[in-house]
Amino acid sequence: MKNLHNLLMLALFTPALYANTPVQPLPLSPQLAYQLVESLTTEVGPRIAGSPGDRASVQWATSQMKSLGFDKVWTEEFVTPYWQRGQARLEVLTPFPQSLVLTALGGSVGTPANGIDATVVQFDSLEALLAAKPEQVKDKIVFINKAMTKDRAGSQYGKVVGARAKGAVDAARLGAKALIIRSVGTSANRFAHTGKMSYDPAVPKIPAVAISAPDAQQLARILQKAPEAKLKLQMDNQQTEDAISHNVIGEITGSERPDEIVLIGAHLDSWDQGTGALDDGAGVGLVMATAALLKKEGQPKRTIRVVLYGNEEGGLVGARAYAARHAKELSKHVLASESDFGAGRIWRFETRFGASALPFAKQIQQQLAPLGIEAGGNDAFGGPDVSVLKALGVPVVTLEQDGTDYFDYHHTPNDTLDKVDPAALEQNLQAWLIMTRAVANSALDLRK
Amino acid sequence: MKNLHNLLMLALFTPALYANTPVQPLPLSPQLAYQLVESLTTEVGPRIAGSPGDRASVQWATSQMKSLGFDKVWTEEFVTPYWQRGQARLEVLTPFPQSLVLTALGGSVGTPANGIDATVVQFDSLEALLAAKPEQVKDKIVFINKAMTKDRAGSQYGKVVGARAKGAVDAARLGAKALIIRSVGTSANRFAHTGKMSYDPAVPKIPAVAISAPDAQQLARILQKAPEAKLKLQMDNQQTEDAISHNVIGEITGSERPDEIVLIGAHLDSWDQGTGALDDGAGVGLVMATAALLKKEGQPKRTIRVVLYGNEEGGLVGARAYAARHAKELSKHVLASESDFGAGRIWRFETRFGASALPFAKQIQQQLAPLGIEAGGNDAFGGPDVSVLKALGVPVVTLEQDGTDYFDYHHTPNDTLDKVDPAALEQNLQAWLIMTRAVANSALDLRK
Fold it and tell me: What gap in Å lies between CA B31 and CA B252, rounded to an integer?
């Protein structure tokens, strides 16, 4: 029945069925990136992998690329887990009855229908939980209360996100009934930040949620006044393993070396709470606009391939599918780069090139300098989806954005279009045009 | 059955039953106001009139006043409507399916169980709706999309709040099925601001909701692209008319003229979405701390009466009950003043005194000047609850707070303790001490 269901879903929702949906043609102007973000977030909105919004976004991207004059446009299907958020409720039962603002972490199981009632054991970090004894944790709700600080590079994210990604496994291993984390985020607003968590097949699956920063502070105060405070968590998420999603790919064909691919990417999926304007509508708009505007200048020498990855949020599912499907072609990927860090101004240019290509990197940076972009090192990340290609030897660059405020909005309902500054996005677009133009019209092998 | 139910509720929840609940004694320090806000918002949290939180807050206030050494503490019961928020959901059905962030307006009826499906007619103000013809509005959802700007005095609130207060009546009169307003608030965060709305017995009651500012912008974009967009609203609020609530009153008895009352007030109830830290936990903490710290200095000559009003948010219900119950005593109210505009620094001192008391007002302002407080006029508002007494001839003052950010948080889930700046609250407390001390130790008749 499940397979039949999926076939039916596929028949109903395969993008081809939508191929003739009219798209409002957008002018090829410096505002194009913003107009694409506006269109995607307004007409599609939330688009978690496997959902109707995901399918609508694939249709949207395909139609827009055609409308923008891309030479080739196609989709590449992959199978993906599809996680659906249900109702969620977290209450202090005693001694200070009140509700806390929470969100299920992506991938979390639900609770039994009548919920989980338990006392709480609080830790100030994942490391403190790992050092705990089972008798401290058994049958309790684990609360990891670690705050995150801001900086331009978002460097604290990696130090905090472990509690979200694997806290449920570590808590369950010690006998906990559920996991609550303080949101991985930097805002004092009362939004809970979702994000992917994972289970270990050898450890019982317990429900995992995040509460907002003000709620984490509130819960800490409650526990200080009443260490035996009792909480109730009720949640009913669902997950299927074999949904269908797609990477959407569009090309501007190279005039001289069409087999050499300059890949510029972003991810098309978003979390379900917001409309994914910063994460990653901005990136989608930027790379689509870059390719379309460069075609308007005249066909580049190399092929510019825009890859809009599916299901980045669920763990680079589309990126792995792309790498697998294009394995034989990767040596022809002369460069890959991704925009996926919001919509702040680009302030640094980083590469991961072979040594003999570094003077070329310097040339690009000199063209970027008037935009306020400084030179970075040769250890670029490239972007989350593109990191899969980097690991396979593809040269990458990062046009590094100012991420000071990114984690205020990241994975919350508050990730909406109004958080995108059109002027900052235009600066991004100018940088992407310079970088992509330079590489697409060069003959240089960046691996060497 | 309803009356039996209420008697039972009264028996179960009358404050006397809680009178021996232990309270953690707070030190009489300059941090007392903040510590009281912290205690109220943590231990009670949301406290809409008629709710269990309301009853807990009455118990909390009574116990705290006793613990702080007030000479007399009592409660005054009144009957009040009790409005309970249910589930609410607002979806764009076609052509861009997505959910919008909404909140029911306080007092709104729900929808039929299967919701209301309709197209939308948008107006840029209540005035524009009032100028509309029935054929524009009939069977549609009215959307009033008016933004609010910020200033220190919060002067735009009065110009925008009409859509919330009476928009549902005006829309229903023209045949609308429901009302959506852009939140009355100044934040770009995705919170919907609730607040009281009213019906007219002669006009059908239609459901009324607010959407957040980003959602209002989103809906406007959707309607621009698709004027025939269809929405679905589902909501199930409940209201009973005869719940019980209380004003809580505590006094520091005057040593020389105990029958002369200096009333300093705030409101104890809050909306249900946040913990009511700014609205009006801060005010509650300030006036309680003022009285307690002044008693520590030695008994004042006049009686200082702290009135913590019940159900301000539902329309000054406690304030009217107080005025009715104390009608014969109002001539002995030498002054009334309320703190209910958040927790920003006080920047201006305003009075509503008789002409011969104005030199005394000037003396008070001179004492306040080192705190950065300038002189205002003699047309003070006094505060929402206290305005009822002002209308009956009681002299009032306003220690006017900086409200620049107040409407970012007002009536949202985001009204939480972390939004209270302890240093600003301490400046408030110093000003309240100066003003209250001066009036309580004076023999002047401020009416003359």
Answer: 20
Instruction: Tell me if A42 and B222 make a contact (CB, 8 A cut-off).
Output: yes
Q: How far is the C-alpha of B310 from the C-alpha of B246, rounded, in Å?
A: 6
Which portions of chain B are predicted below pLDDT 70?
1-22
CB B102 within 8 A of CB B194: no
Contacts of B189 in chain A (CB under 8 A): 189, 191, 414
Contacts of B417 in chain A (CB under 8 A): 214, 217-218
- What's the Cα-to-Cα distance from B351 to each of A61, A418, B264, B369, rounded to whole Å? 62, 41, 14, 15
Contact list, B185 vs chain A (CB under 8 Å) = none
CB contact under 8 A, B417 and A188: no
Check CB contact under 8 Å for B225 and A42: yes
Separation of alpha carbons B250 and B253, rounded Å:
9
Instruction: Specify whether B38 is catalytic.
Output: no
Write b or e for each residue in B121-152: b if 16 or more Cβ atoms lie within 10 A of its Cβ, otherwise e. Answer: bbbeebeebeebeeeebeebbbbbbbebebeb
Whether A137 and A176 have beta carbons less than 8 Å apart is answered as yes
Residues of B in contact with A53 (CB under 8 A): 97-98
Burial of B13 (0-12, 13-18, 19+ CB in 10 A): middle
The set of residues, in sequence order, having a beta carbon less than 8 Å from that of A298 and lying 6+ positions away, is none
Written as six digits, the tokens of A287 are: 């790379």
Cα distance from B64 to chain A (closest Cα, Å)? 16
A432-443: buried (b, 16+ CB within 10 Å) or exposed (e) per residue? bbbbbbbbbbbe
Residue in chain B nearest A213 by alpha carbon: B418
CA–CA distances in Å: residue B209 to residues A273, B73, B204: 20, 39, 16
d(CA B346, CA B354): 23
- Is there a contact between A414 and B189 if contact means CB atoms under 8 Å apart? yes
A180 closest CA partner among A231, A141, A148: A141
Q: Which of B42, B412, B417 sits opposite A225 (nearest CB)?
A: B42
pLDDT at B23: 75
Measured in angstroms, the CA of A392 and the nearest CA of chain B are apart by: 38
| pLDDT per 10-residue tile (average), chain A, 448 residues | 43 40 84 98 98 98 98 98 98 98 98 98 98 98 98 95 98 98 98 98 98 98 98 97 97 98 98 98 98 98 98 98 98 98 98 98 98 98 98 98 98 98 98 98 98
Task: Tell me if A194 sits within 8 A of A220, measured CB to CB.
Answer: no
Local structure of A19: helix, strand or coil: coil
* pLDDT at site A24: 78
DSSP A189: S
pLDDT tens-place string over residues B241-284? 999 999 999 999 999 999 999 999 999 999 999 999 999 999 99
Measure CB to CB from residue B45 to each of A98, A190, A213 and give the nearest one: A98
Q: Residue B359, preceding bond cis, omega within 30 degrees?
A: no
Nearest Cα neighbor of B140 from B233, B237, B270, B279 is B233
Give the full edge-to-edge strand order of the sheet including A72-84. A72-84, A238-252, A302-309, A257-267, A333-338, A396-401, A346-352, A374-375
Question: Nearest Cβ partner of A416 from B97, B214, B222?
Answer: B214
Smallest CA–CA separation between A362 and chain B, in Å?
40
